[in-house]
Amino acid sequence: MSSSTSVVHQLPEKELQALGLQSKQNTHYQLSAKELTQQAISRGEGELNDTGALVIKTGEFTGRSPKDKFIVKDEITKESVHWNDFNIPISEKYFDQLYDKLIAHLNKNEYWVRDCYACADPDFRLNIRVINENPWSNLFAYNMFLRPNAEEIESFQPEWHILQAPSFKADPAIDGTRQHNFAIVSFKRKTILIGGTGYTGEMKKGIFTILNYLLPHDKKVLSMHCSANIGKEGDTAIFFGLSGTGKTTLSADPARQLIGDDEHGWNDDTVFNFEGGCYAKTIDLSQEKEPEIFNSIRPGALVENTTFFAGSNKIDFSSKEITENTRVSYPLSYISNALEPSIGKIPKNIFFLTADAYGILPPISKLTAGQAMYQFISGYTAKVAGTEAGVTEPKSTFSACFGAPFLPLHPGAYAAMLGEKMKMHNVQIWMINTGWSGGAYGVGQRMKIAYTRAMITAALEGKLNNAEYEAHPIFGMMMPKECPGVPAEVLNPRNTWLDKDLYDKKAKDLASEFIKNFEKYASGVTDETLAAAPQI
Ligand code: ATP
Ligand code: MN
After folding, report:
1. Are 137 and 270 in contact (CB under 8 A)?
2. Could you give phi then psi for residue 162, rounded to 5 degrees?
3. To test ligand 1's pocket by mutation, which of 205, 249, 251, 293 has the most ligand atoms within 8 angstroms of CB?
4. Are 138 and 298 in contact (CB under 8 A)?
5. What is the average per-residue pLDDT within 265-289?
6. DSSP 392
7. Which residues pair with 137 in a beta bridge?
8. Which of 64, 240, 245, 455 has most ligand 1 atoms within 8 Å of its beta carbon, as the pocket-test mutant?
9. Which uninterrupted H or E stretch holds 231?
């Protein structure tokens, strides 16, 4: 467990040879976080900051590249995958070709092998062997996936493999890719190939993608792009939301135990984490606003794409010099009150997080079952700068199930499962706008984190149960008129706009965007869901 103890594990030589890897002196197997950190530094790939975390640069890519993510179209996936802009097909021929090239590339130099797994619930455990061409990528795998104990390592049988080499570049003309970088999933070969990009998030979202296929499709478990925590009474809360909406920030709550910050499964009677670590944004990070995350930046943590104040090793969290998507990964145990194993109960409350850059949606509201389905299928938010290549300012988007880029099945499959579970367990659904208030991006301000936290706490503690509510005139959700710890005037967004007519107009514009986006789903949903559409 501790990063200072280093156990020497027997290299799985035969298995690596079967992959085509020539087992050599310079194959590094199952190194500790401390060893990986030291190697990264001695190779000139990173530095320690003043609190002892490893700080590296991921290179050309500092975010995911959804247009370069492919799924091999074969007998398994041909009919079952919902082919779209995020699930882009590639033929087996190209996978095989790139596999051979990637292996040949790894054989040229040192490589780092790590055995780990996904899914905290033992019934769904998925063993993964990750092979990287540099030590810091391997440290990311150590931090983010679950860590088998010494005994489990002895008998470890990998089911899936990730082969990752940032310096390997595909030749699009020959290899069937769009450009030199790629992430390719093959369900038949149970392998993810990543090349041309050093952005570590591709590894975690690669595994998330396969789980979003395997769990609902083969195991009847709902997979979700959400964070989760649990209160003293054993009450689980989950927080759905696209990138930058606050899953990681808001789930780290000193009053509740953290289950996980990004990916979970909902089985019959549990909610379980897929991962063993967190991957938090660090832009404008402060000890005051996000103490748990701030204090996780210590030995073993991997910080990406930040810069130091001149002449020091102190991270300047406000700097966007390399990217706005600066990140840190660390094991779950770095959060002071993480639940272990990360398995909670069925949620009592579900929060849909949105970062509305138009400043239209209320900061907290209660949804009916129909509204909840409508909002889940819509998946509205603004993409904030950084996490994806090419996004430099907030841009409105609809992403079904708050996670379209990672969902290989039709969104209807996930929505139907959530709808059934919500009703069966009588879950309360809330919508939280962590985005703009008092006007759109550029005019208004982002909602204060302290207010958002106070609203969530009030909801969780039942303090909004007897509050007076008013319906949003266009979107219909119920807005509380008062909430402890929050100035009443921010609760109805219209009150925060100087120009009320402009608010009404912009609210109608946003409603039109919702309605237009929903057209493609309208024929496949219930009347109750359809009736929850905004009314212009
Ligand atoms: P990803 O899926 O990319 O990991 P995420 O949903 O986990 O995204 P966070 O990492 O929690 O998103 O990012 C939220 C960001 O927004 C943080 O940088 C946080 O400081 C900032 N922020 C500003 N205002 C708020 C607010 N009111 N609530 C939550 N986060 C806020
Ligand atoms: Mn997150």
Report:
1. no
2. -115, 125
3. 249
4. no
5. 97
6. -
7. none
8. 245
9. none
Q: 356 pLDDT band (50/70/90 cuts)?
A: very high
User: Residues of 208-237 as b/e, b for ≥16 C-beta within 10 angstroms?
Assistant: bbbbbbbbbbeeebbbbbbbbbbbeeebbb
Ligand 1 atom at minimal distance to the Cα of residue 251: 11
Check if the beta carbon of residue 110 is closer than 8 Å to that of residue 26: yes
Query: Is residue 118 a contact partner of residue 211, using CB atoms and an 8 Å limit?
Result: yes
What's the one-letter identity of residue 38?
Q
Average pLDDT over residues 485-491: 98
Distance, in Å, from the CA atom of 407 to the CA atom of 272, rounded to the nearest integer, reads 18
Please list all protein residues whose beta carbon sits less than 5 angstroms from ligand 2, which is an ion: 247-248, 262
For residue range 43-83, list pLDDT tens digits in order: 999 999 999 999 999 999 999 999 999 999 999 999 999 99
* Catalytic option among 129, 147, 161, 205: 205
Q: Ligand 1 pocket by C-beta < 6 Å: which residues?
A: 241, 243-250, 262, 279-281, 283, 387, 434, 446-447, 449, 452
Residue 509 and residue 515: Cα distance in Å, rounded? Answer: 10
Banded pLDDT at 3 (limits 50, 70, 90): very low
Q: How far apart are the first and last CA of the chain?
A: 57
Q: Is the pTM of this model over 0.90?
A: yes
Determine contact, residues 297/214, Cβ cutoff 8 Å.
no
Total residues found in the chain within this entry: 536
* Mean pLDDT estimate for the chain: 95
Token representation of residue 60: 């050309």
Q: Which residues contact 428 (CB under 8 A, 6 or more apart)?
A: 348, 349, 350, 366, 459
> What does DSSP say about strands 327-331 and 69-72: parallel, antiparallel, or unpaired?
unpaired
- The answer to whether 268 is a known catalytic residue is no
Question: Tokens representing 357?
Answer: 């850059």
96: annotated active-site residue: no
Evaluate if residue 411 carries a pLDDT over 70: yes
